[in-house]
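User: Predict the structure for this protein chain, please.
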Amino acid sequence: MIRDAIDREVEAVDSEYQLARPSDANRKEMLFGSLARPGHPMGKFFWGNAETLKHEPKRNNIDTHARLREFWMRYYSAHYMTLVVQSKETLDTLEKWVTEIFSQIPNNGLPKPNFGHLTDPFDTPAFNKLYRVVPIRKIHALTITWALPPQQQHYRVKPLHYISWLVGHEGKGSILSYLRKKCWALALFGGNGETGFEQNSTYSVFSISITLTDEGYEHFYEVAHTVFQYLKMLQKLGPEKRIFEEIQKIEDNEFHYQEQTDPVEYVENMCENMQLYPLQDFLTGDQLLFEYKPEVIAEALNQLVPQKANLVLLSGANEGKCDLKEKWFGTQYSMEDVENSWAELWKTNFELNPDLHLPAENKYIATDFMLKAFDCPETEYPVKIVNTPQGCLWYKKDNKFKIPKAYIRFHLISPLIQKSAANVVLFDIFVNILTHNLAEPAYEADVAQLEYKLVAGEHGLIIRVKGFNHKLPLLFQLIIDYLAEFSSTPAVFTMITEQLKKTYFNILIKPETLAKDVRLLILEYARWSMIDKYRALMDGLSLESLLSFVKEFKSQLFVEGLVQGNVTSTESMDFLKYVVDKLNFMPLEQEMPVQFQVVELPSGHHLCKVRALNKGDANSEVTVYYQSGARSLKEYTLMELLVMHMEEPCFDFLRTKQTLGYHVYPTCRNTSGILGFSVTVGTQATKYNSEVVDKKIEEFLSSFEEKIENLTEEAFNTQVTALIKLKECEDTHLGEEVDRNWNEVVTQQYLFDRLAHEIEALKSFSKSDLVNWFKAHRGPGSKMLSVHVVGFGKYELEEDGSPSGEDSNSSCEVMQLTYLPSSPLLVDSTIPITDIRAFTSTLNLLPYHKIVK
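Assistant: Here is the predicted structure, written as structure tokens:
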């Protein structure tokens, strides 16, 4: 533990803290912790920053280095640790490795810390109150939380899982179904996240978080009352064995037929399980329900009463009404008693709501797990089994994983979407309302481990369905039925459009997403930016315009699908046939490319520097991008190899040594078929000017050029071999194979054996190929684009010399970008972009390109 290394790590921790500050989830958690009784561990500041780890200790003559070593000696002990190793090597080999690697870990023999005496951390007068909070994002949300006794010892019953399954249900009779019909809520999540903060040896959380509409915010007490009515109904009925056994059956099915997960994730999960469960339950303790004990469930359920609840109401409407500020994240909030009329009502034996009831028996739970026989020749890759003017279908019967599951994916392509910013927004509204309409009827399928997702793609509607193949056709047909018979009420239209305004706004105020939007707006011709979409939405759209758009969208399409898994080719063709028959559309008049055309950047260093859109956010994002052009698969693979060489020195130079920020990474960029690479640094305006960071990135790239020139053949070959091994890695589950194949379908490239071609290319590369390619793209004729999204802090000054922005939650106007001039640091070496549309209108368009050769 070198002192200098600790100082650098403090900077990294501080950067992580700065990145966490604009997160409403983190702010809410920190505020909740502050309600714990004084001196309790739950009230600690558990992020750490430069103030607590460096400046304050220095003022108080505390040696951080000595304290860290003391902590390490106390807790870095073998008898506190659990170890899981997964490998294809023999057990004898693994035992030998474990002995060699881990036997030197010290064992101090000290007893494990016990916090069992610190229960009831939130048994305080401050807990059972209403807290109004000003969020960072545009959102209305109500969170109702109870602090219960520790529940970990009841893992065989999982009472909180039982309760959350019912509270979070979205079918008929549920809380959310009722609130959606009232147009008061959009989403609800209930339960315990099983994080160290939410479940530990001192207490367990049970929380219900509801995303409210504007109208729901006005009726938040009625929303809370609906929750309390549902819980009272559950308490009155008591635990139901039918419900428990249904949950148990679903979890058993999922466990028995689960696909292999990523090995790193798996060993991490097992390591944690070994800390929590006895030996016989290491593999199953976190997933299965073992015993039905109604008294254990009832004990937890009966504590979920209004008198013990904490209410947190998040809304921008609270701004100006909150006179308190949380110490570490600066969250503005107020504390008040629950309104007297409601508090008095909740003390009484209030009436139940007849619209709230338990869910019916689930018809989507699979019972047939037989593997189907092949009805066509086995193939290594998907084959096209249907090809008509209206659509085509790719199919592959699973012959590797042998599980009773299937994946169905469809892309409904239409040129209508990208014709205007208003059309892109109408498409987003359409997909959001369709998802809303499906929420209740499809929820039973969702809880039976049949998953679906509707995605508003840039060129079409993407439908993804997966799960046990037995009942999967029922879910797919339900989705297509609702698509064919799409409708919306004025109330739902208003609710969804208001929420979409918040969604767009929340995307724009994040520096990393704004930086991506700006970069792609420059590079991709005819792309509509998030600001274009936000402006079109704010200008106003009507329900009539939506219904007209949807009618036109459904009238003319090209449908492309992929079906993989435990499904026959005949069954697969039925999926496409169902889409075509139900929607009854005309084919497209001409083939439509599913990518944008990309502009050719001129030679030189172009800089687009814009102001971030959240005045309370110090985070800046700097991306330096080099455009290569329309290249071959071989060159793409060479670029991958280059970035792999770049990753470690990039991290070492920009994060470890220069301490510029927490997120530092190089990336291969495939922008609609046009190649390039970039280096991105997330930094803070409280520490660095973005142009200093840009200069440091260039400094790194210069040092990297020297580094690869001096690379030994052995080191070069080691990296080549490592990348080949990565590409040769077998898929751990069917979903990985499907994702790769679907990417070929959705981009219309169809090179399903791409990995094999990339491996062949890697075997042909020499060190000089790598060096020459990098030099060619960094030379005098290089096409370089820097995108800076500048946060608010003392190193980014306004023209009057004052720091830009205040430490508040307020946001700038997001209807347009604010372009910033270059400082003297870059003004002579860069060409400024102060109007993206004007800049790109003068550039050549590169032809459509696919990386298939």
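Residues 117-347 form a domain with the Cytochrome Bc1 Complex; Chain A, domain 1 fold (CATH 3.30.830.10).
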